[in-house]
Amino acid sequence: MASTFFATALSAQENKAGEAVTADPALSLEALDIMLVPLPVDALEVEAEAWRQILQDQVVAIGENELKRLPFGDPEAVTDPAIQAQLDAIHEELSEQRKRRSELIEHLNLVLFHIVEKAGVDENQQEPEFVRNMRMYIDTVDGIRASTVENRSLGDEVEEWIDSPEGGKRLLRRVLIVPTVIVFSWFLGWLLARGMVKGLVMAGRESQMLSTFLRRNVPKVLAAFGAVFGLVMVGFHVAPLVALIGGMSFVLAFALQESLGNFASGFMIMFYRPFDIGDYINAAGVEGTVKEMTLVNTSITTVDNKLMVVPNNAIWNDVITNITGVTQRRIDLVFGIGYADDMDKAQAILEDVIAGNPNVLPEPEPVVRVHELGDSSVNFVCRPWVKPEDYWETYWDITRRVKERFDAEGVSIPFPQRDLHVYTEAVAAADNGDAEGPQIGGETTETDDGEAGRAGASESLDPDGNETGKDGDGRG
After folding, report:
1. Buried (b) or exposed (e) across 109-122, using 16+ Cβ within 10 A?
2. Could you tell me which residues come within 8 angstroms of residue 221 by beta carbon, excluding any fewer than 6 positions away?
3. Contact, 176 vs 183, CB < 8 A?
4. Pairing status of strand 444-446 against strand 378-383
5. Which of left, alpha, beta for 386 (phi over 0: left; psi -120 to 50: alpha)?
6. Cβ neighbour number for residue 353 with a 10 Å cutoff
């Protein structure tokens, strides 16, 4: 059959007035499309005219059946069963004829498409005159005109439109296909995300942050692909759209360099998992609890309940300290006692306070040791281990109880003290006429009558700051 067609097609190219080779109503649209490819414009016009003639014959047949219905008047007013049966038979035949008419119009439109594709349009973007005339004819005979169906009921017209391939069926197919494909793709993405999360759990790489990201975004990505696939299924050409997106992505890559850096850092954080949602971290100069993370930024709540939104790039390029990303934390405490106090007694008190705290873990064993001989105190270091969530409660409790026990058992806690020495300029006594000049005295004390008396000092300084070697009364 294919060889016969191509032989006929070649003969049609040689003879512009040749007969049509595709005018067969039983021919499918796919086969017709293939058979029209090798034909030139003049041969295609012959094919279009042949299809127009077939369409005309079908329209005439429809008109004859419409004329048969006229004598019966309004179909809904008929009560005679015999007449109703005749009307039903005519209606069924008309439905089939209109269906065939819609199919013939599709075939004729396909031929016209090939003519425009090969002949092109003029400078005014107008199709060839032959094609325009054909389309005017199609518009005239397509559908049911009110002037010829005055006696047809609205229900008949709606039913016919629904049954028509050019009407309800096509619209329903286009309306339902795209949403159906999108919903199916989203559901498939939801199943895929669940499988990926379970795979992470089985592999021992469970992460609340990564799991949330997969559940939110995998269904959306597959739904977007499903939307594109659904548009292709209903005949929408997505190639220009894809080309447009490709061109825009090149421009956006330069305009959104910082955001793309945040995207990359977000993926790295999710893959290497230096922290997770709920962890207490210190990164990019911000310390607090991680509340949420996206590909662009991370939301951190500080201890004073401030919400800080930090770009992922700043976090990934900085030192990340995960304070609660472990199962145990050590508390470092330092307590000082006086040099005159009993060190063994102080150490026993510290060990007893730590042992009495229920939050302190038995392993690793707490450490209590003399750590440093300070300027005014002997310093003990206390290092108990606790769970991360018990850190501050244990820290505060041990500090308070140590102070209470030291006070109760007479162990002193030294604190810095400062002795103040006030130096004044001595004035010669007016009574004896001595003029000793400026003198620097020692520490002054307050007498009962309010006069300042100079305490004896072993050394004095002259106005230039040099030692004079004077005694307590200011004489050398």
Report:
1. bbbbebbeeebeee
2. 189
3. no
4. unpaired
5. beta
6. 24
- Where along the chain do its domains lie? 2-166, 171-255, 262-322, 329-408, 418-476
**Secondary structure in 3-state letters for 128-151:** CHHHHHHHHHHHHHCCCCHHHCCC
Asked whether the domain spanning 329-408 has the same topology as the one spanning 262-322, the reply is no
| Blockwise average pLDDT, block size 10, the chain, 476 residues | 47 54 86 88 90 90 82 64 78 84 88 88 83 88 51 55 58 77 91 86 76 85 86 74 75 73 85 86 91 89 92 91 86 94 94 94 93 92 93 94 94 82 63 50 42 39 45 41
User: H or E stretch including 366?
Assistant: none
- Does the domain spanning 329-408 belong to CATH 2.40.30.170? no
Q: Is the peptide bond before 364 cis (omega within 30 degrees of 0)?
A: yes
Which residues are CB-contacts of 380 (< 8 A; sequence separation ≥ 6)?
A: 334, 335, 336, 337, 346, 347, 350, 368, 369, 370, 371
Q: How far is CA 247 from CA 35, 63, 153, 236, in A?
A: 37, 54, 54, 20
CA atoms of 98 and 167, how far apart (whole Å): 11
Torsion angle, alpha carbons of 357, 359, 361, 366, to 10: -40
Cα 389 from chain centroid?
A: 30
| CA dist., res. 231 & res. 174, Å (int) | 9
What confidence tens digit (pLDDT) does each residue in 254-295 have? 667 777 888 888 888 888 888 888 889 999 889 999 998 888
Q: Please answer whether residues 346 and 304 qualify as being in contact, where contact means their C-beta atoms are separated by less than 8 angstroms.
A: no
Which backbone phi and psi does 82 adopt, to 5 degrees?
-65, -45
| Backbone dihedral angles phi then psi of residue 474, each to the nearest 5 degrees | 95, 0
237 SS3 class: coil
**23, 51 Cβ separation under 8 angstroms:** yes
Q: What is the pLDDT of residues 390-433, one digit of tens each?
A: 999 999 999 999 999 999 999 999 887 777 878 876 544 445 55
Q: What is the CATH number of domain 262-322?
A: 2.30.30.60
**pTM, two decimal places:** 0.44
CA dist 158 and 196 (Å) reads 49
